[in-house]
Design brief:
This protein has 598 residues and is mostly helical. The protein has 25 helices and 5 strands. The protein folds into 3 domains: 227 residues, Serine Threonine Protein Phosphatase 5, Tetratricopeptide repeat (Alpha Horseshoe); 78 residues; 150 residues, Alpha-Beta Plaits. The two termini are 26 Å apart. It catalyses: 2 GTP = 3',3'-c-di-GMP + 2 diphosphate.
Length: 598
């Protein structure tokens, strides 16, 4: 199952190495520190970008710039502070770097430096989960971008725009900005970054064929870039693509071939990304020992950089849970599952916050435009009123009609903005493919319903559904057919649900149903009806004769209590037992007198 991932930390690696250094900076190497120039402007030029190519040289340059004998202008002092902030970013201390970048962006009289600092500030705001501020800061940068002629500033801003829109789920816009970045790139390093943004957006959108068609071009640019960090970011996307295509040996080989180089760069988020991908690839290839080793590395590494709710942490806990469950270590498996649930909920909240921030700022921009248009129309009306006051009564009637038309136009704009807001709020709660609740909204609604049942002393059950061998359907018939099968399965479920039941897609081919005011016996009967309905519906006339079934796991508040997390743990155990005992059946954990059906 493909999952989106948070890569704003990886994007900051690009900001930290300056995306495109000042002209000639990356190509200049000073063999001896004693031969460093005396001119502050030249020292700044050499240091800008040197931290990614020669950290020792960068340190020597910064020490030279700190020499009290050098006379730096106020603007040069700001440039030096900008380099210090970038060095802090490179170490992974994004919280400390944020106020420094904001001060530089606000104080610099050099528009280029101010623009670069503002673009980096956007990414730092994302690491602090301040998404609305990030989009609000990005919006004026994009408005001013057509006036910017300096290539390095344009490329950095396009990269920031591509990544931030990708994080908000606006994949088409992310691809558009990445394509524009590629067109304006004048060296392999910037081209590699453009390819990285583009393929990451296409991969998250599930457009695997488009990714496969473009990988070779991106790999060529990244191999020529000569920068381990940027190339490593791109190769992580390639490895994720290989894993989703089931090409596990290729993914492991690519990651292991570059693992030592990435470790030497000592950039924690990229190291975690590599370890997470290796954990997934090893687990899917049957090497549980290696999978566990790399997953534990992710957890330990992310503790040091505040990555509790990152995608890599969530994925690592999922692998650890699966490994321990397969080995029969149930207590360790349950502990890892609880950590997975915490990380998963935090991550989903983070994803939703980004999408909501994008729409909020978008509506604010529309509202501001509407306000400006309204004031302009009012001024036109006042001017017209003065003119018409001097004319005959029939002309005055024309004025009234015109005024009504203008006011109706304003009302229509206001209505459209409000309708757009309401439409987004609805979409934010729904799965894009099936139209049922997405995972986050399912969790929120389920917890509310369970609290109500607890207060009123009513029973409730949780049903987990997982389509059997669904990956085979995708691999054999393609994702378009797989999507049709998913929709038919959802339609089959909905025929047996009440208006009070909560139905959501938890991810991939897994679904959840909360059945309030339902005993365990009733839940078993309804789950059996749904099981039969799925098997019948999935083999209909328009399903291309594909045979598909589903396995069910049920938990009840009588045994598991009213906490959703515990209900999910027990239902998942039951689902695993149903899979283990032959699939296409309903199972309940903790009730040996209840036999699986099917």
């Amino acid at each position: 199952m493909s999952r989106p991932r948070t890569t704003s930390w990886l994007l900051l690696a690009v900001a930290a190495i300056g995306l495109l250094p000042l002209a000639g900076a990356a190509a200049v190497v000073q063999p001896q520190h004693a031969s460093l120039p005396e001119d502050p402007a030249q020292l700044l030029k050499l240091a800008d970008g040197a931290e990614s190519s020669d950290i020792n040289e960068f340190t020597a340059l910064m020490q030279r710039l700190d020499d009290g004998k050098l006379k730096l202008s106020p603007q040069q002092q700001l440039h030096r502070r900008y380099l210090v902030a970038r060095q802090i970013i490179f170490r992974g201390d994004f919280k400390a770097a944020l106020p420094l970048m904001k001060a530089i962006a606000d104080q610099s009289e050099d528009p280029t430096l101010s623009f670069r600092a503002s673009a980096t500030e956007v990414d730092l705001l994302v690491t602090q989960s301040r998404y609305e501020e990030a989009f609000a800061r990005l919006s004026p940068l994009l408005e001013k971008l057509p006036q910017i002629t300096e290539n390095r500033v344009r490329i950095q801003t396009l990269g920031v725009a591509s990544q931030l829109h990708l994080e908000a789920g606006q994949y088409d816009m992310a691809v558009n900005y990445a394509e524009q970045l590629l067109k304006e790139s004048d060296n392999p390093k910037n081209a590699c970054i453009g390819w990285y943004y583009m393929l990451d957006a296409l991969l998250r959108e599930g457009r695997l064929q488009a990714v496969g068609e473009r990988i070779r071009g991106g790999m060529g640019a990244c191999n020529r870039a000569g920068n381990v960090l940027i190339a490593g970011m791109f190769k992580s996307v390639v490895a994720r693509f290989d894993i989703q295509k089931g090409q596990l040996a290729e993914a492991i080989g690519l990651l292991q071939d570059n693992y030592a180089d990435v470790q030497r760069k000592r950039f924690p988020p990229l190291i975690s990304d590599f370890d997470e991908l290796l954990a997934q690839a090893y687990w899917k290839s049957g090497d549980a020992v290696s999978a566990k080793m790399h997953a534990l590395r992710v957890v330990e590494n992310n503790k040091g950089i505040g990555g509790l709710y990152s995608e890599s942490t969530r994925a690592a806990y999922q692998v650890l849970y699966q490994v321990e469950k397969k080995q029969g270590n149930l207590s360790e498996a349950l502990a890892y599952f609880e950590n997975y649930m915490i990380a998963d909920k935090g991550y989903l909240n983070d994803v939703s916050a980004k999408a909501l921030a994008y729409q909020t700022v978008k509506q604010q921009v529309l509202a501001k435009k509407l306000q400006i248009d309204t004031l302009s129309k009012q001024n036109q009306i006042l001017t017209l009123q003065e003119t018409l006051a001097k004319k005959a009564a029939e002309t005055s009637r024309l004025y009234i009609i015109l005024l009504l038309i203008v006011l109706a136009s304003i009302a229509m704009w206001t209505y459209r903005v409000k309708r757009s807001q309401l439409r987004f709020m609805k979409l934010a709660r729904r799965d894009g493919l099936t139209g049922i609740f997405n995972r986050q909204h399912f969790v929120n609604e389920a917890e509310l319903q369970l609290r109500y049942c607890r207060k009123s002393g009513r029973q409730a059950c949780l049903v987990l559904i997982d389509l059997d061998h669904f990956k085979v359907v995708n691999d054999t018939h393609g994702h378009a057919v797989g999507d049709r099968v998913l929709k038919r399965a959802v339609e089959a479920c909905e025929q047996h649900l009440r208006s009070t039941d909560i139905f959501g897609r938890l991810g991939g081919e897994e679904f959840g149903i909360v059945l309030p005011e339902c005993t365990l016996e009733q839940a078993l009967n309804r789950a059996e009806q749904i099981r039969v309905a799925i098997a019948t519906a999935a083999s209909g006339d328009d399903a291309l004769g594909i045979s598909i079934s589903a396995s069910f796991g049920i938990s009840s508040v009588v045994l598991s209590g009213y906490e959703l997390r515990q209900l999910l743990i027990h239902a998942d155990e039951a689902l695993y037992r149903a899979k283990r005992e032959g699939r296409n059946r309903v199972s309940v954990v903790g009730h040996p007198e209840v036999f699986p059906t099917g």
